[in-house]
Amino acid sequence: MHLDAYDGFLCDLDGCLISGTTVLPGAKALLDYAGDRLIILSNNSTDTPATLSARLKQLGLSAPPERIVLAGTAALDHLAQIGGVRLRLYASADLRAYAQPLGLSLDSAEPTHVLLTRDETFGYSDLRDVIALLARGAELFVANPDESHPGPDGMPVPETGSLLAAVLSVLPDLRYTVIGKPEAGLYHAALVRLSGDPRRVLAIGDNPKTDAAGAARLGFDCALVGADHGEWTDLDHFLAAGRADKRHAQH
């Protein structure tokens, strides 16, 4: 896989660049190599681009907000574009703050839409409320379908998909809308920020069900990294292989 053949890179966050507060091997090297050709494209539904950029800076990684596309904020942007949305939002304080200026009516007694993100305070009473709201006709939007993401201690961290699973255990035939990977909308939001040929884009991730499946829908090449699913154990291994391919091509 010759890296210089690509005009753009869409790189996942958790399991590729970081794991919790741990910077993974090759993360800084990839950001330095790709520069503004790289967009961090993540199903993260806790941060905003601004808060994630600041968090990464504390870890020694430079990624300005305009090079970050996240499922949580993308879901809120999408709902704001619909217009007239009365929203029941289950989300972090950062996402709630992001939603405030978007013109969404939050926490209405009779919402038209419910948005699930990775809300660490979500509990049994919230589940009962969601079931009741959906039964009364509210539409369910879900930031991402991921059940978990890799934690720094090797333990999986519950994600938005685990909250969705709880809802579906009660309403198995429920129709709902997913915003994040593998759906195409999140990729299109990233592509408009790249200046190169949209056909010459490489997706980098660690999850076959979201990263690889999403790339396949858009017709992108995909590199999977990580000990569990990847052809490459980490980004260091991936970059070394890409440089080796370049040297091979020159001979």
Average of the residue pLDDT scores: 91
Sheet with the most strands?
Answer: 5 strands, parallel
State Rg: 19 Å
Q: Summarize the amount of helix as a percent range.
A: 25-40%
The CATH homologous superfamily name of the domain at 21-26 and 44-197 equals HAD superfamily/HAD-like
Strand segment count: 14
For the terminal residues, how far apart are their CA atoms? 15 Å
**How are strands sequenced across the largest beta sheet?**
5-4-1-13-14
**Which structural class is indicated by helix and strand composition?**
alpha/beta
Look up the CATH topology of the domain at 21-26 and 44-197. Answer: Rossmann fold
Please state roughly what percent of the residues sit in beta strands, choosing from under 5%, 5-15%, 15-25%, 25-35%, 35-45% or over 45%: 15-25%
- The ordered H/E elements are EEEHEHEHEHEEHEEEHEHEHEH
Structural features:
single chain; 251 residues; alpha/beta; Rossmann fold; five-stranded parallel sheet; 14 strands; globular
In short:
Keywords: Hydrolase. It is built from nine helices and 14 strands.
Task: Report on the architecture of this protein.
This protein has 251 residues and is α/β, with parallel strands linked by helices. It has a domain at 21-26 and 44-197: Rossmann fold. Helix content is 38%, strand content 20%. The protein has 9 helices and 14 strands. The strands form 4 sheets. Strands 5-4-1-13-14 form a 5-stranded parallel beta sheet, with helices on both faces. It has a 5-stranded parallel beta sheet with strand order 7-6-8-9-12. Strands 2-3 form a two-stranded antiparallel ribbon. Strand 4 (38-42), helix 2 (49-58) and strand 5 (68-70) form a beta-alpha-beta unit. Mean pLDDT is 91; it is low at 247-251. It comes from Pseudooceanicola spongiae. Pfam families: Hydrolase_6 (PF13344), Hydrolase_like (PF13242).
